[in-house]
Amino acid sequence: MPTTKKKKEEETTAKPKATFKGKYFYANGKRKTSVARVRLYKGEGKIIINDKPINEFVSVKTMIGLIKFPFKVVGADKQYDVSAKVVGGGTSSQAEAVRHGIAKGLLEADPLSKPSLKKAGLLTRDSRTKERQKPGLKRARKGPQFSKR
User: How far is residue 94's CA from residue 47's CA, in Å, rounded to a whole number?
Assistant: First the structure.
């Protein structure tokens, strides 16, 4: 039976999933409305977020440094491969959620690294989120303009 044109297109456009094999350490990272599910594998320092290498996922170099910061604190720069799935929020929020997940994953991998991660503030979930809009107001706190007469 001949394959249809549509099937051929799907086969050529399908991206090969870059997955790692073996035992891993799992952690969730959160920031604003972003949630990152992070897996740390023993490896050589590859970071893949949403099936893309870190350079494709994040274009700003400062955010790449932000994501890799937990490894520098612990001194495990090239010891772990990272596979992360991130949903919600914007790019900055997603990068910080991945950083939080990596820090929690490193804690799972090596409980002795807790003091250094805690001192750097990487284990604390940043709970600042957008405030909800209240009834009778235009935004969270902005009220309608008051007219005296």
Answer: 14
To which residue do tokens 């409305």 refer?
Answer: 33
Average pLDDT, the chain: 90
Q: Which of 6, 10, 15 is nearest to 50 (CA)?
A: 15
| pLDDT for res 12 | 47
Q: Which residue has the higher pLDDT, 17 or 38?
A: 38
Return all residues near 37 (Cβ < 8 A) that are at least 6 apart. Answer: 26, 28, 84, 85, 86, 101
Q: Residue 59: which domain range?
A: 23-110
Residue 82, φ and ψ in degrees, nearest 5: -120, 130
At residue 3, the pLDDT reads 57
Tell me whether residue 44 is in a domain: yes
